[in-house]
Amino acid sequence: MYKLTLIVVLLLITLTILLFNYVGRYDSIGPELIVNSNFLDSLEGWVKHDNKSAMINTPEPGLLSLAQANSGSSVFVKQVIKSAQDYSSIAVKCDVKIENIIRGKLSWEEPRVLLVSKNDSGKKIWNYPHEVFGDGWSNGWGTYEKAFGVNEGINEMELIIGLFRSSGSMYIKNLSVHSVVEKYRFTIMKYFLAMLWALSFTFIFYLLFWTPQNRYLTALLVVASIISIAAILAPHSAMRKFQESKETLSVYKTAEVFANNIISKDSAFHFHPLGEVYGSDWAKTHEMAHLSIFFILGLLTFITFRDYDFLILVIALIAFAASAETLQYFSSDRAVKIGDFLLNVTGVTAAILISMAVKVAYRIMKPA
After folding, report:
1. Pairing of β 154-163 and β 75-81
2. What span, in angstroms and rounded, lies between the C-alpha atoms of 153 and 349?
3. Is the four-CA dihedral 244, 245, 246, 247 of positive or negative sign?
4. Partner residues linked to 27 by β-bridges
5. Is residue 53 very low, low, confident or very high in pLDDT (cuts 50, 70, 90)?
6. In terms of CB atoms within 10 Å, which end of the chain has fewer, N or C?
7. What percent of the chain has pLDDT over 70?
8. Higher confidence at residue 56 or residue 53?
């Protein structure tokens, strides 16, 4: 049965990856939203931000080149997408190549393509995921393609391409920005696959954890799992609303100030659960959230697991960690990252090791 459970999870992960990466998801329904997107007219229509150590040019028609020697500054080009509120989703696609990149200390100090939205008052809202081009993009040209849902209250958006506090070279070609809608066929396949995920997890929880003695702890584990998956799947519009609502709570303000004073006096780190989403320097908290959530799930699983076979427990938790990351595909504006999966695995592994150590210590210290 345990082998069957693992096979089911691996099959669902494979089907999800295939669906979202190899089946056409969107249809373009409008004209190109960017002026001179192919860079045939040099940088006409684009606003440049450079410095003395940077160079922005089009070495050949259709190719954008960004380069800088100083990793302490930024170089980028940007263009406004006007009347963004007229569209439900906007897709960005381009070919990317990077060379000799030296990154900064913070997670956002890297080559990036990003969308920044503005509300009716003109305030920038950093609520879209910023695509990081890591080492995997340094082996030649790769294609980046992503669709972003346009949140309510957005007046216009900016497309920004650049090297942010990092040095090296970045090349862009075949850029296109269009309004898109999800294909009906893809939507049906997506919801059918989501239903399979839900049924499979119900079966897995019953198989692995349910006993009359463990019914309350098992229920707690199921609730914790649902909350963690809901947080992973939550669109950024919902996260932004949560951010705005909690800022009005005085108890949160008090807790944040207290935590900042206890955790660190260094302004490079602050207690802020949604820091990275909003473009701040608090990205480390995102990593801590992954570790903490799966550490707690690991503890609950160890307590409720009815067969304390170490290998089965590890396989079950790693499969759950992989599933949690794979489920992000179902959210249109969330990125699946192998680094987050490794953080999840680290959290559950630490929980297992600590739980086993406590259990062994208790047995040793327990009077005969």
Report:
1. antiparallel
2. 42
3. positive
4. 181
5. confident
6. C
7. 67
8. 56
Whole-number Å distance between alpha carbons of 359 and 368: 15
Burial of 12 (0-12, 13-18, 19+ CB in 10 A): buried
- Cα separation, 201 vs 323, in Å, equals 10
* Cα-based torsion angle of the residue sequence 229, 179, 243, 338 in order, rounded to the nearest 10 degrees: 40
Domain boundaries, the chain: 2-23+184-365, 27-181
Task: Kindly report whether the global pTM for this prediction surpasses the value 0.85.
Answer: no
The amino acid at 263: I
Amino acid in the structure at residue 1: M
Q: Which two tokens stand for residue 88?
A: 């439900």
Are 329 and 280 in contact, with CB atoms under 8 Å apart?
no
Q: Does 3.30.70.1050 match the CATH number of domain 27-181? A: no
Tokens of residue 160, six digits: 């920004």
Give phi and psi for 158, each to the nearest 5: -120, 135
Compare 214 and 271 and report the one with higher pLDDT.
Answer: 214
Angstrom distance (rounded) from CA 368 to CA 364 = 9
Place of tokens 């695995």: 345
For 290, the token pair is 């992954």
Query: Nearest-CA neighbor of 163 among 281, 68, 242, 58?
Result: 68
Per-position DSSP letters for 9-31, written without gaps between them: HHHHHHHHHHHHHHS--EEE-S-
